[in-house]
Amino acid sequence: MKLGLSRACLYSSCCASIASSSMPSLTAIKPKIPIFLRQPSYSVTSSDLQKWHGWAKNIVSSVGSSFVESDNGPDSTLLCRELNWLLEDSLENRSSSSCFSFSACKYDTVDEIENVMLRISLDDLYQLWKQRIEDRRPFQYIVGCEHWRDLVLSVQEGVLIPRPETELIVDLVSDAVSNNEELGQGLWADLGTGSGAVAIGISKILRFYGRVIATDLSPDAVSVAMFNVQRYGLQHVIEVRRGSWFEPLKDVEGQLVGIVSNPPYIPSDNISGLQAEVGRHEPRLALDGGASGMDYLLHLCNGAAAMLKPGGFFAFETNGEKQCKFLVDYMQNQIAGSFCNLNIVSDFAGIQRFVTGFRQ
Predict the structure, then answer these.
(1) Residues 142-170: what's their mean pLDDT?
(2) What b-and-e string marks burial along 233-258, b requiring 16 or more CB atoms within 10 Å of the CB?
(3) pLDDT tens-place string over residues 95-114
(4) Residue 3: pLDDT above 50?
(5) Mean pLDDT on 253-266
(6) SS3 letters across the chain
(7) Which of 36, 266, 304, 305 is most buried, by the most CB atoms less than 10 A from its CB?
């Protein structure tokens, strides 16, 4: 989970907008509320909370580097940070966490604190941390949210957890819009939106001059995306539609100025070798890209040729250099004449990750 020193600031800035918003009323599946947004309804003694933390840190100590060695999973240092974040999210007043000292999983309480209010029960805290260690349940699913760019997004089982590298898609769109005013005033599509992260990021760039349609086949993803869109008051800018890729966009064929997507691109045979947090828990629908991992990327290329207006921009995320080069070759030779100014862009780690271009 990518969090910086501004984690608490991100919470305080988003809570004001969230508190004034309501849940979407038309979703078939009701999203789960992230822990930090729940009402503080549970009173516990600091002594009992200390016992929980002592139990939790002992489990972390027993993990050591075993997760790293088995599948490049989290080490005990990261798990310690997650433990502290879980407590921060659970406390009624985040500033009250200053009354507790955390350092390398050391826990000390201030004697004056006798009772504290929590947003989940102590029994739930025990259960959640047990799931984190024994089941390798992703931390984002434990707390119900992920920090992504300047957003705090609701996530839950059945919805892909947005990755730090995917943030670059928003930057690529920003660059394209800054060089072409028309792109900033038109209709965009985020295909396979998941939590709605990219759609929300793009909407902030468009600044109410353009619109975004976000699509996803998963009812869980549609529900969570709608929840996140409404939390940030963007329901008049972003429309969430359920359906497979371009199917929900038949009414806007040839009218899009931009298409972005982070589609499933992991080769099917590689799913079983993924980190347990990913392979066991994140939706296979959002991971499995077919035998070569290219099934949906090729579908996106073919569809974009019909959906984009001349001069329209696209940005697709891939699994790396091999897929990037294959995709560029496909567009240059198999559907020649459809796109121009094709470009491969590396992610934060220097891995060739994105393919961008324009409709001819």
Answers:
(1) 97
(2) ebeebbbbbbeebbebbeeeeeebbb
(3) 555 455 444 444 444 445 68
(4) no
(5) 98
(6) CCCCCCHHHHHHHHHHHHHCCCCCCCCCCCCCCCHHHCCCCEEEEHHHHHHHHHHHHHHHHHHCCHHHHHHCCCCHHHHHHHHHHHHHHHECCHHHHHHEEEECCEEEECCCCCEEEECCCHHHHHHHHHHHHHCCCCHHHHHCEEEECCEEEECCCCCCCCCHHHHHHHHHHHHHHHCCHHHHHCEEEEECCCCCHHHHHHHHHHCCCCEEEEEECCHHHHHHHHHHHHHCCCCCCEEEEECCCCHHHHHHCCCEEEEEECCCCECHHHHHHCCHHHHCCCCHHHCECCCCCCHHHHHHHHHHHHHEEEEEEEEEECCCHHHHHHHHHHHHHHCCCCEEEEEEEECCCCCEEEEEEEEC
(7) 304
Maximum CA extent, the chain = 72
Position 134 pLDDT exceeds 80: yes
